[in-house]
Amino acid sequence: MAKKQVNANIILSLVLAGLLIFIFGKPTVSKAPHSSPAPFREELAEVDEPELQTLWFHSLAEPLPLVMSTSFEEANIQSLLKEGAVILPVGNGFNQAGNMVIVAHSSGLPWFGPYRFAFSELSDLGVGDEFRITIGDSQYTYRVFEREIVHPEAIYELPQDTRSTVTLVTCWPVWTDFKRLLIHGELSSGA
User: Fold this and answer.
1) Which of 24, 82, 159, 166 is deepest in the core (most CB within 10 A)?
2) Nearest to residue 145, comparing CAs of 119, 179, 103, 183?
3) Measured between alpha carbons, how far is residue 151 from residues 170, 171, 179, 182 in Å?
4) Which residues pair with residue 166 across a beta bridge?
C-alpha cells in the first residue's frame, strides 16, 4: 500500500512538472543585472565586477553569475538566488583544501527571479564531466567525481578533506523541493 502511495506521488509530481512547463514554457536562463555583496574571502576581495565571477558547464548556454552569501539566513540566500548561483559561506576558497558549496534553483515560479532555472540542466553533469569557475582573472576547472540525490537535511554531510572540491546543489526532481541533487567536483586545473 505504501509503495502505491509513493508511486502515485511520483506520477503526480511528474504530471505537475509537465503542466508547469506547459504553462510557463521551457526553462531558460537569462542575464539580469545584479550587485555582488561584500566578499568574505580574501581571494574574492579583489573582484570588483560581478560578471567576473561565473560558473559554466556544458549544458549552459552562457556562464552563470556567481554571487556571495555572507550568511546562511534563508531570506538572504533566496534574495541572492534571483541574481545567479550563490556561493555559501563555507570552505577556504577555490584552489584551497576543503569544500566550497554553490546553490541555485532548478525551477520555480516567476517570483523566483530570472535565474530560477539556473541549475535545471545540472543533472546532465556526469562523473568525469567538468565545470569551470572564473573569479576575476583566475579560472578553476573541476572534474565531477560523484553525483548523489539526498534528502534536504543530508546536504550538511559534505566532503571535507585535503582535496579542493566544489559541491553544486539544487532541488530535485525539477519542479519540486523533495530532495537535493549534489554534484561533487575536484579541482583538476586552476590558475
Assistant:
1) 166
2) 183
3) 11, 10, 5, 10
4) 100, 185
The sign of the CA dihedral 182, 170, 14, 61 is: negative
Instruction: Going residue by residue through the chain, which has 191 residues, state the pLDDT in tens, using 9 for 90 and above.
Output: 554 444 344 443 433 344 334 334 444 433 333 333 333 344 444 444 444 799 999 988 889 999 999 999 999 999 999 999 999 998 888 889 999 999 999 888 888 888 988 899 999 999 999 999 999 989 999 999 999 999 888 777 777 778 999 999 999 988 888 899 999 999 998 75
CB atoms within 10 A of CB 48: 9
Neighbours of 190 (CB within 10 A): 16
List, as one string, the DSSP characters of 35-56: -PPPP-SHHHHT---GGGEEEE
Q: Could you tell me the CA-to-CA distances from 37 to 50, 67, 81, 141 in Å, in that order? A: 9, 7, 12, 24
Q: SS3 helix, strand, coil % of the chain, rounded to 5?
A: 25, 30, 45
SS (H, E, C) 155-179: HHCCCCCCCEEEEEEEEECCCCCCE
Cβ contact 182:147 at 8 Å: yes
